[in-house]
Design goal:
The chain is an alpha/beta fold and about 425 residues long. About 30% of the residues lie in helices and about 20% in strands. A hairpin with a 2-residue loop joins β3 (about 45) and β4. It is globular and about 65 Å long. The structure holds inosinic acid. Inosinic acid (IMP) binds near residues 13, 41, 42, 129 and 136.
């Protein structure tokens, strides 16, 4: 039975939620796993007339009968999860017995969010990272620093009060320089103790050993789907550092974050839009900060699910996607938003960069170099035809089919899923028989 992962190949917002939901419905998926990131993610899934926006709970929750795991690599915001549970339950989707959260996930506290806010305005590297302000970086930093970290298991332990008091005392000293960014409540040990103890009590029935659950499942041949959050170019080790998120958001993060050996992941879908978007700061070689970018933003409704920020828009970057597809071990591409580029008079694809007059086809490791690259484009005439109701590859205009073939060739991976609109039904599947 395959283990399938769904990985974003750009800077996030590739519509991974739609692919996870679709695969969970199409295949006999038993379990969906969220294994990294936190409430910075925003997965939008459209089912019939209903739109669901999920930040922490795996998209598999929308498919009846599917079990959902939040595994140790995640940073966890209990308030967001309880809110999502209430929202889903209110819409008739049962959650309680279909969600298992590892006691090993690290918990985001108010001081993380306050510090994220402060660091975001403090332009240490000259430009703000433009984070989602969900406390992600400070929480992961505390995890790796170890001593000031609190995990979900601690919330339901009898040592919780003592732990909070120790950490708050430490934070009071450590955050001295950011005093104006903190409110009195952010470091009120008693208030935080009571609030988070209550969160723990509400979540307790859903806290359990996901690692054992998952290993039992893969060994019993159950189909597991690993749902990536953010995109590979935001990977802390392999992305456009320092303008990245704080987890391994490329395919290499699945095994460590979920707690499953790599040999159980037998199929990797890479998800990319037919253009590129980015939110937050940092270099973006193919950005179109001009009427074309504006047109893409409006056609694609490119505004953040989590923060509502307008996304920066630009052309498809095959140099970057080839890199992230290789890094993530992708063997099938899901190409999204074909309906959006179908309205453009002309379409460009970046096939190489020029750096100081030299042609390169890799993503430079240094941010100063990535800022200086000049994209080399292939320019394609647009077909300007509505494709949003097409359900088979043969129905697509010849220009669209040529573009898809060229993207496959440049990235080195076949396109197996094409998305022509947000709904489940607006998808063209060209899956090899082995993947079904
Ligand atoms: P953080 O993850 O909130 O620390 O933000 C770090 C960078 O990652 C910023 O540029 C964010 O805009 C970006 N980012 C984080 N989560 C997402 C996401 O789900 N989609 C797109 N960008 C994201």
């Amino acid at each position: 039975m395959p283990g399938t992962s769904v990985i974003g190949l750009q800077w996030g917002d590739e519509a991974k939620g739609k692919i996870v939901d679709l695969l969970a419905e199409q295949f006999q998926v038993a379990i969906v796993v969220r294994y990294q990131g936190g409430a910075n993610a925003g997965h939008t899934v459209v089912i019939g007339r209903e739109t669901y926006k999920l930040h922490q709970i795996p998209s598999g929750i929308l498919t009846p009968g599917v079990m959902n795991l939040i595994t140790p690599g995640v940073v966890f915001n209990p308030a967001v999860v309880l809110d999502e549970i209430a929202g889903l339950t209110g819409r008739g989707i049962p959650v309680a017995d279909r969600l298992l959260i590892s006691p090993r996930v690290h918990v985001v506290f108010p001081w993380h969010i306050a510090e994220d806010r402060a660091l975001n305005t403090d332009k240490i590297v000259g430009e703000s990272i433009g984070t989602t302000l969900r406390g992600i970086g400070p929480c992961y930093r505390d995890k790796y620093g170890r001593l000031a970290a609190i995990r979900l298991g601690d919330l339901v332990s009898q040592h919780f009060r003592e732990r909070i008091e120790q950490v708050v005392a430490f934070k009071r000293r450590a955050l001295e320089g950011y005093r104006e960014a903190l409110t009195a409540e952010d470091l009120d040990a008693e208030l935080i103790y009571r609030t988070y103890r209550d969160y723990g009590a509400q979540l307790a029935p859903m806290i359990g050993d996901t690692t054992t659950y998952l290993l039992d499942a893969v060994e019993a041949d159950r189909h597991v789907l690993y749902e990536g959050a953010q995109g590979s170019l935001l990977d802390i080790d392999h992305g456009t550092f320092p303008f990245v998120t704080s987890s391994n958001s490329s395919g290499v993060g699945v095994s460590a974050g979920a707690g499953v050996p790599g040999r159980w992941i037998t199929k990797v879908y890479g998800v990319a839009k037919a253009y590129t978007t980015r939110v937050g700061g940092g270099p973006f070689p193919t950005e179109q900060d001009n009427p074309t970018g504006h047109q893409i933003r409006e056609l694609g409704r490119e505004y953040g699910t989590t923060t509502g920020r307008p996304r920066r828009c630009g052309w498809f970057d095959a140099v970057a996607v080839r890199y992230t597809a290789r890094l993530s071990g992708v063997d099938g591409l899901a190409l999204m938003m074909l309906d959006v580029v179908s309205h453009l008079p002309e379409i460009r694809v970046c096939v190489a960069y020029e750096l100081d007059g030299e042609r390169i086809t890799h993503v430079p490791s240094q941010i100063e170099d990535l800022r200086r690259v000049v994209p080399v484009y292939e320019t394609w005439p647009g077909w300007q035809q509505d494709v949003s109701q097409m359900t088979r590859l043969e129905q697509l205009p010849a220009g669209a089919r040529r573009l898809i073939a060229r993207i496959s060739e440049l990235v080195g991976v076949p396109v197996e899923i094409l998305s022509v609109g947000p709904a489940r039904s607006q998808t063209i599947l060209d899956l090899p028989p082995a993947a079904r």
